[in-house]
Known about the structure:
Layout (H helix, E strand, L loop, with lengths): L10 E2 L3 H7 L1 H16 L8 H5 L31 H25 L7 H9 L19 H4 L2 E7 L5 E7 L10 H7 L22 H10 L1 H11 L5 H5 L15 H13 L16 H19 L8 E2 L13 E2 L4 E6 L5 E3 L14 E2 L12 H16 L7 E2 L4 E14 L8 E6 L15 E6 L11 E7 L1 H6 L6 H11 E7 L2 E3 L8 E12 L7 E2 L3 E2 L1 H4 L17 E2 L1
Parallel strand pairs: 1-8, 18-19
Antiparallel strand pairs: 2-3, 4-5, 6-7, 9-10, 10-13, 10-16, 11-12, 11-14, 14-15, 16-17, 16-18
Helix pairs in contact: 1-2, 2-4, 2-5, 4-5, 4-12, 8-11, 9-13, 11-12
Amino acid sequence: FTPVIGAPGLQPRIAIEDMQANAPDVYNMFILGLVAMQAEDENRDQSYYQISGIHGRPHIPWQSQFDPNNNDPSRGYCTHGNPLFATWHRPYLLLVEQTICGHATSIAARFTGPDAQKYRDAADRVRIPYWDWSSQVTRSRLPSAVTSQGVTVIQPDASGAPQSTVIANPLYSYKFSNDQNRQTYFAGVFQTIPQTCRQPDGSFNSRNNLAEDEMTNTYEPRRANTYNLFSIPNFGEFAAASGTGATAPSNWISVESIHNDIHAHIGGANGHMSYVDYAAFDPIFWLHHCNVDRLIAMYQAIWPSQFIQSSPAAATFGRIVHPGDRDDVNTPLRPFRHPDGHEWTSADINSATSIMNYGYTYPEIPAEYRTRPAQDLTTFVTGKVNDLYRPSLGGGSGSGSGYKSRREWIALIQMDQGEIYGQFSLLIFLGNVPTSVGAWQTAPNHVGGCATFGDDTSRNEYIIRGSVPLTEALVENKVDLDPAYCVPYLRKNLKWVIKQGDRSIPVKDLKSLKVGVSSSVVEYPKDYHQLPRRKKEETHYDITYKQEGGLQYNDTYLVKSEQA
């Protein structure tokens, strides 16, 4: 078997844009390593196809024999809707990273001449780059690294001399090489699409521009949600999109819910990223999940005492779940194993600095903090979170005591993702919804949404939650944030619709849907080493109770807050 150990040495995973601009030799070796991995025979278990296939389809064992008592062939190995979502993807990324790095190192060894050492050093620094889709600099734009069809690389020629060549960009798409595998293991339209695609047209050509338009149009709520993640005091609520029972409105968001939404925007109708079964074949998956992992490490730094608690178990290919089964910190993260054959568990990665045991870190988790008190890292990372994601505080008021405060508004969304067949999204608008479904995602008054990330052939039934921050849109619309003005405005203007592919689904068809609105006064300290303080949270049932799918006065059991 292949032990998951990470790449040798200790190097930071950096932003893809930063790698391209400021570490071009490392970027070159990363691209060459990925090209080599994608070129491996699809039936080899180290190939891009087989490793990507661990996540969902082909629903077959990876480096083990099929065991009918433990293996569920209706799904892949990945964990979703459960706190293990956060930890399962960590060894998964490591497996890809060590494979790409291994190829990069082999290729670098073939260079000859005065620059040979430069490429060897660059190969040692290769790590999966991340795509920060909440960055205030790039504002959810897709990196050019994933949208250009060709890329210029320097590779060794037959004699080892560096040679500049334009090649097909391995981050643009993965081309399936074995038609028989697709016919055997994929379903429906995916049996015929020869390469991964994003927001495809009728001929399955990618339309990255549509994905980018949807992403940039929802940037502001994404940034706000990302910032708010770090104030959630419970790891399980931070990590997983699933949720039931009374939860404070500010904790309805999760890193998984933000992540689901991005899958839906990138894939669109019939794009691989929209479906659990196919998402990991699209190379953007690795940049996306690298950023999810980065946010998890930052959360672990800010909340070092918080980690996985026991929760209802999630079924995966590697585990048949029976009623009453639980997942906890010792649940095996299959199919990943250590060199001694022991299975990976979440306990292996239970702190921010634990990632350094596996060869990587992030700019926000500097290596020198490995030996310093945990509180020092907490303070440092909190400062980074504020630098990166804190809002500019329009509509707020200052005070003499060193903080700014404003009332902030969020829409809360709860739905059963198994109630409607296939992937779907709930979209929120302020004002009239455009008549054409095709105009919904990019309409100026579309303020965010909540997407499911299911598979295309079966119903994964569980309740998911998400939230859409409304404050910046209200400020932009010049609405006073005081409830006296906001409540009547939202009662009149808050609208929601359900989109599946390129068609709409009547809201009445989603019986499990609950959309509510909560607000609270939030105080922002002047000191960037502190997170904001949220005062009493209130839920405004009077905004939504008359609408189909709206939160009703008798739904108070869902929301841990006061009734406004």
